[in-house]
Design brief:
The chain is of the alpha/beta class. It contains 8 helices and 8 strands. The protein has 2 domains: 142 residues, HAD superfamily/HAD-like (Rossmann fold), CATH 3.40.50.1000; 62 residues, no CATH class. The strands form 2 sheets. It has a 6-stranded parallel beta sheet, sandwiched between helices. Strands 2-3 form a two-stranded antiparallel sheet. Strand 4, helix 6 and strand 5 form a beta-alpha-beta unit.
Length: 215
């Protein structure tokens, strides 16, 4: 008996790649580096600042200048986080139907609270989320199970009665390890080299409304 459906945000509920990528390309131009195409950006968008900085500048978290690059990138993203971001087609219809069936919904994202708290109210959800857990809400982010358990505690629903929907391997790992049923959002930011068959989600769906067939 599913009582709640929890979702990743970037690449699952909302198409944030245009703003994430726009911020990256502005930063790259400032450093006299070539822009990246949106196709390239989409494959890394779920991996946040770390994935995008590696893509654009070859800067990884062990690089001595990583902290400065990350700060610059986040400041740039802060100036345009909701400029071109929008919900994927079918998301609001799905949420309305979940509400009609008495099923709670919420968000568990690795996006920092700094952005989540501002972005979520601007996305135009037909029903507000029952819970929002950001990457820094619990001190640990996915694939840790901490955010998963925290969300369930907030809405007072057992993880065993919860579905988790995401587009990254860490989403499936976190959901499974927390005892949730997991769903891979195949419309999300999945790279060609990602071997999704090894992630072992319980289900796969190709559009948000396909979720209703599983309930």
């Amino acid at each position: 008996m599913i009582q709640a459906v929890l979702f990743d945000l970037d690449g699952t509920l909302a198409d944030t790649a245009l703003d994430l990528g726009g911020a990256l390309n502005t930063l790259l131009a400032r450093h006299n580096l070539p822009a990246k195409s949106m196709d390239e950006i989409r494959t890394q968008a779920s991996h946040g600042a770390a994935g995008l900085l590696k893509l654009g500048a070859g800067i990884t978290p062990d690089h001595p200048d990583y902290a400065q690059w990350r700060t610059e990138y986040l400041d740039e993203y802060d100036s345009r986080y909701a400029q071109d971001t929008a919900l994927f087609d079918g998301v609001n219809k799905l949420i309305a139907e979940l509400d009609k069936r008495g099923i709670k919904w919420g968000i568990i994202t690795n996006k920092p609270m700094r952005f989540t708290d501002k972005l979520v109210p601007k996305l135009g959800f037909v029903i507000p989320p029952a819970v929002v857990v950001s990457g820094d809400t619990c001190g640990e982010s996915k694939p840790s199970v901490k955010p998963m358990f925290h969300a369930c505690e907030q809405i007072q629903i057992n993880p065993q009665h919860t579905l988790y929907v995401g587009d990254a391997e860490r989403d499936i790992q976190a959901g499974r390890n927390a005892g949730m049923k997991t769903i891979l959002a195949e419309w999300g930011y999945i790279a060609p080299e990602d071997r999704t068959e090894t992630w072992q989600p319980d289900y796969r769906i190709s559009s948000p409304l396909d979720l209703l067939k599983l309930l």
